[in-house]
Amino acid sequence: MSEIIRFKLNGTPVTLDTNADRRLLWVLRTDLELTGAKYGCGEGQCGSCTVIVDGRAVRSCQASLGSVQGKAVTTIEGLALDGKLHPLQQAFQEHGALQCGYCTPGMIMNAYGVLLRHPNPTREQIVQGMQPNLCRCGAHTRIIRAIEVAAGRNGGSHD
Amino acid sequence: MTELTRMDRREFVTLLGGGIVVVVTVPFESLWDALDQQGRQRGYPEDINAYLHIAQDGKVTLYSGKIEMGQGVMTSLSQMAAEELGVSLDAVHIIMGDTAACPWDMGTFGSLTTRVFGPAVRAAAAQARLILTDLAARRLGVARDGLTVENGVVYVTAAPSRRASYGELANGQRITHTVDQKAVLRAVREFGVMGRSPRRLDGIEKVTGAAKYAGDIRLPGMLYARVLRSPAHGATLQRMDASAVAAMRDVTVVSEDGLVAVLSADPETAERALKLVRAEFDDPALAVNTETIFDHLVRSGGTPNTPEAAGDLAAGQRLCTRTYDVTYYNGYVAHAPIEPHTAVAEVKDGKATVWSSTQGPFSQQATIAREIGFPPEDVRVITPYVGGGFGGKMAGLQAVEAARLAKFTGKPVQVAWTRAEEFFYDSFRPAAVVKIVSGVDGEGRLALWDYQVYGAGARGSDVFYDVPNRSVRVYGEWGRAPDGMHPFAVGPWRAPAANTNRFAAEQQIDMMALGAGVDPLEFRLKNTKDPRMLGVLQAVAKAYGWKPAPSPSRTGRGRGVACGIDAGTYVAHVADVTVDLQTGKIAVERVVCAQDMGVVVNPDGARMQMEGCITMGLGYALSEEVRFEGRRVLDESFATYQLPRFSWVPAIETVLVSNDGLSPQGGGEPAIINMGAVIANAVFDATGARMRRLPMTPERVLAEIRRI
After folding, report:
1. What is the rounded average pLDDT of the residues B695-700?
2. Angstrom distance (rounded) from CA B53 to CA B34
3. In whole angstroms, how far apart are CA B398 and each of B258, B309, B346, B389, B515?
4. Among B141, B192, B634, B676, which one is most buried in terms of CB atoms within 10 A?
5. CATH classification of A2-77 is 3.10.20.30, yes or no?
6. Over the stretch B653-684, which tens digit does the pLDDT of each residue have?
7. What is the average per-residue pLDDT within B53-65?
8. How far apart are CA B477 and CA B537, in angstroms?
9. Which residue from B316, B250, B676 is spatially nearest to B468, judged by alpha carbons?
C-alpha cells in the first residue's frame, strides 16, 4: 500500500510515495540511487548494509522504509562534508583498512555508530562494537587501528 | 588476442585521442622469462600497445586482464608500469578486466598477477621507455645515453633545460617506431616507485561508497531477476506452476530451457514473485553426508598421480626407529565473499555487454558467447570492482543467467545471488583425507615419508625436507576428480589444496620432532637444507623470540610452528593459543609470519595480504565447514556458517625476508597455508591433544582432550 514517507537523507529532506513495507536498503539502492550500502546477506548477519538512523547504526536490509519516517538517515555517501573526508574515511584510507572494499561502507557506518556511543573508545569497545560486521578479506586488524586513529582525531567528528 | 579484438582495441585507443603507437621488432616473449602458464593456452600479446597508451597530456593508461578483488594489484601493477616507464604513479590510470580493452588473460588466481602478468607489464613499460628515449634522442640531437628520464620527461643530462615530455613526443600523432634492442628492467637499487608503499589507488572510492561493483550498475529499464533454484544438486524440475505470479503487476516470468526466472523493476517484488512459483523437483538421493564423506573419498579416489617418488619406502621403513601412521581430515569450506555473485547484462543490436563480478572476464566472455549463441567478439565483459573472490568467482553462472535473461526479455537484467544461493552454488574447497606414514632414524633424521592425499590435490604437498625415501600420491586433484567423488562442485579456494596438505604434513613433522626429543623448530632446521626455508624459519623464530621448551606444556597455553612453500613464496608461522580446557574453545593470541617472496613490489600491500591470509585462515582452522546431507547443502547463511570475527583476531606480526635477487613471487595466498597446522601444533602444546580434523571446533577439541 502506497503512502507518503518523509525523512532526511544525508541532510536533505526527501519525500517518497511508495510502500512503507519496503526494505530501506532497496529503496536506497533503487529509487534513491545510493549504492554505497551493500547487500551481503539480507538477514542482518553481515553488516554491509549498515546506515545511521537518528544516531544509531541500523541494518538497512532489516529496516522497513516506514521505520525511518520523520527520522534522519546517513549513508556512506553523506559522511564526507564539503568534499572533506570524515576522519573515519581518512583513517581507513591511510591505514589500508580495506581490501575488496565491499564491506567497507558498512564497516565505516558501523564504526560511526560505535564512536557516537563511545567517543573515546577502548580497544575492547571497538572490537565488541564491530563484532557483528563481517569482512572476508581479513582487514580486521587495520580496521581496528583505523577506528582508534579516527577516534583520536576529535572523537571521530569533523570538527 | 585475436586479430578482431586487437582491432577493436585500436579503435578504443583512437577514441582516447592521439598517442604513441609503437612496434617492437624483438619477439615480445623473449622480453621476460617468467613461468609462462599462459603459454599453454594463449600467450600475452607481443604488441606493447596492448598494455599501454600514452596520451598527449602525458597520461598513461595501463590495460590489465587481471582484476581487482582486494589483493591490491590495481596499485602494484600501476607501480610496476610507472617504475619502468619512468613516470610518477599518479600519471598512471589502469583499466582492468574489460575484454574490449585489455590483453587476454586466463584469470586472476594462483597468485599469478605479480609473478606472471607483472613481468609482461614491466617489459612493455621498459620497452616503451626505451622507444620514447630514442624518439627524444632524435628530436634533441643527442645520443640516447646522454639523456635522462624523469617523471615522463626526457632531458639532456648535461643540459636539463633541453627536454621533451612523453606527451610532446607523441605530439598527437600516431607514431610507429622500432628499436632493435631489448630494454633492461630497472634494478632494485634504482627503484623509486616499486618497493614503496603508496596508499591504495582504490582506497578513496572504497571509503566514500563511490566504488562500483556489478550490483551497482544501473541501466535504463533494468529488471532484477530471481531464479528458481532446486533444493539439491542434481535435482531436476518435474512440475512448475507460475500462475499465481500472473496476478502481480509488472512481473515477467521466463521459463526457457531449464532456466525459470521472475523479473521486475523492483528487486523485492521479484523476490515476492519467486515465492509464488510452485515447483516440484525430484530428489536425487545420495547416501553421503558431512561425517561419512571421508570413507567415500578414499573409496572413490581412483588412480593417483605421483608428483614425488624417490628412494625405497620399504628400505626407509627399516631405517626408522619409530614410524608414525596418521590420517587427517578436513570438510568442505565455502568461499563466502561478502559480495555474492552478481552480473548485469544488456543485449542490444546483436551485441551483449555484461558487467560481472568475476575473476575470469575472458573465460566468461567465451562461456556467455557459447550459451547465448553469439560469436565471442560480440560479447564484452566488463569487470567492475569485485567484492572478494578467493577462487570462487571463476565459473560465472550468474553472468550466463543474466545474459540469457537479457537476450530473452530484450531488457537489461541484473542477477544478484542471495546469500543462500551463494552458499548453494559455490564451488567449495574440497573435503579431503591425508594418510601419512613417516619415520625418523636413530640420528633424528627423516628416513621415510609416504604421503597420500584424497580429494584435495597436490599443491602444498612438496617435500622440502630431506627425506631419502619418499612418495607423494594424489587421488582426485580438484578439477580432475573422478565423477561422483564430491556430491557438488568443488574448486580452487585460496591456495587450493595447500591448506589441507600443510595441515597434515606440518603436524606429522611436529609429531616426529617430539618423538625424537627435538624442539620442533630445531627439527625443521635440521631436516632441510633449502636456504629460503631456513631463512624464513630463522626469521620467524627471531621475531617471535623462540626458545626451546618442553612440549606439550598442557597448561592450556601453547605455541606452534609450521612452514611451507606456495606460489614461489616461502612462508613460516609461529602462533600462540590458549585453549579453554572446560569448553574446548581455542583463542589464537598471537601469530608471527615470515615470508620470502623475492623482490617486494609494495611492502605494505604484501603485509595486507599476509594479514588477510592469517585472519581468513582462522576460519577454516576453527569454525568453517559446510554441512550437507546427500546433495543438499545445509549451511546457507552466516548464522550457522561462522566466518572469523573481530574478537577472534590475534596480534599479527609480519616479517618480509629480503631476497632482492629473486623476481617477485606470489603474495595473495602463501600466508594462509600454514594456519591450520600452526594452530593445531599450538593446541597440542597447550593440551597434549592432536587435532587431526579441520575445523577444530570446541566439541572436537574436547573430544580429543578426553581421548588422551
Report:
1. 98
2. 24
3. 14, 42, 14, 14, 52
4. B676
5. yes
6. 999 999 999 999 999 999 999 999 999 999 99
7. 92
8. 29
9. B316
Residues in chain B: 708
Pair (B64, B85) in one structural domain:
yes
CA distance B47 to B54: 14
Which amino acid is present at B680? A
Residue B15 CB-half CA count within 13 A: 9
Among the candidates B389, B416, B443, a domain finishes at B416
Fold for domain A87-156? DNA polymerase; domain 1 (1.10.150)
**Residue A74 Rama label (left phi>0; alpha psi -120 to 50; beta):** beta
- H helical segments located in B530-639: 531-544, 603-622
How close is the nearest chain A Cα to the Cα of B113, in Å? Answer: 16
* A103 contacts A134 by C-beta, under 8 angstroms: yes
Instruction: Classify residue B423: in a domain, yes or no.
Output: no
pTM value? 0.94
Measure the CA–CA gap between B146 and A133, rounded to whole angstroms: 58
For the record, the C-alpha cell of A158 comes out as 569533523
Rounded to the nearest 10 degrees, what angle do helices B698-707 and B675-687 cross at? 40
Are B637 and A41 within 8 A, CB to CB? yes
- Asked whether residue B237 carries a pLDDT value surpassing 60, the answer given is yes
Q: What are the pLDDT digits (tens) for A1-44?
A: 799 999 999 999 999 999 999 999 999 999 999 999 999 999 99
Candidates B105, B102, B99, B125; CA nearest to B42 is: B105
Length of chain A: 159
- The residue type found at A69 is Q
Look up residue B179 and give its DSSP letter.
-
Task: Inform me whether the C-beta atom of residue B336 falls under 8 Å from chain A C-beta atoms.
Answer: yes
Alpha-carbon gap, residue B634 to B151, rounded angstroms? 57
Yes or no, beta carbons of B70 and A130 under 8 Å apart = no
Interatomic CA distance for residues B558 and B75, integer angstroms: 39
Alpha helix (H) residue ranges in B40-192? 73-85, 118-140, 166-170
A102/B71 touch (CB, cutoff 8 Å), yes or no: no
Asked if B269 contacts B407 with a C-beta cutoff of 8 angstroms, the reply is no
Question: Does B345 lie in the same domain as B321?
Answer: no
SS (H, E, C) B129-150: HHHHHHHHHHHHCCCHHHEEEE
CB B358 within 8 A of CB B67: yes
pLDDT digits (tens, 9 = 90+) for B451-508: 999 999 999 999 999 999 999 999 998 888 898 999 999 999 999 999 999 999 999 9
Please give the radius of gyration of chain B, using alpha carbons only, rounded to the nearest integer: 27
Q: Which domain holds residue B502?
A: 293-332+428-707
| pLDDT value, residue B46 | 76
Kind plus residue range of the DSSP H or E element containing B363 = helix B361-372
Q: A interface mutation test: which of B68, B206, B623 has the most A CBs within 10 A? A: B206
